[in-house]
Amino acid sequence: MGGKRLYQYARAGKTIQRAPRNVTIFAFDLLELTKDDCVARIKCSKGTYIRALARDIGQDLGCGAIISELRRTRIGDYSVDNAYTIDEFIASLKDTKPSNECLSRS
Q1: CA dist 60 → 22, 41, 86 (Å)
Q2: DSSP symbols for the chain
Q3: Which of 2, 24, 81, 87 is 20 to 30 A off residue 11, Cα-Cα?
Q4: Is the pLDDT of residue 104 over 80?
Q5: CA distances (Å), 87 to each of 30, 90, 91, 93, 104, in order?
């Protein structure tokens, strides 16, 4: 919004009206449900604001809702299932050369 991220307005206590956008929720799986909490897995289109979705569901239920943990597990073809661990990534750096060595003929 005007080059400023919406969370910056929120942290400053300002409310910004956003135009609604069309998104698609492909799957909404409720994995756990207790009196105070729920755990869900959501498969959605780009542009979906999960925190806004939780807020809207809480408003519709008349009880409010917040997200205490949010984890993106997939984006496009990339998934946490085939991601490198930090240790694997650091180990892979041992086989790399500085860019100036890669570009040099010597």
Answers
A1: 19, 19, 41
A2: -TTS-HHHHHHTT-----------EEEEEEEEE-SS-EEEEEEE-TT--HHHHHHHHHHHHTS----S-----EETTEEGGGPPPHHHHHHHHTT---HHHHH---
A3: 24
A4: no
A5: 33, 5, 6, 10, 29
Range 21-103: architecture per CATH: 2-Layer Sandwich (3.30)
pTM of structure = 0.66
* Mean pLDDT for all residues in the chain: 88
Strand partners, 28: 42
Please, what sign has the CA dihedral across residues 82, 27, 22, 15? negative
Domain boundaries, the chain: 21-103
Q: Which residues contact 51 (CB under 8 A, 6 or more apart)?
A: 67, 70
**pLDDT the model gives residue 3:** 72
pLDDT of residue 1: 60
- What CA–CA distance (Å, rounded) separates 51 from 61? 15
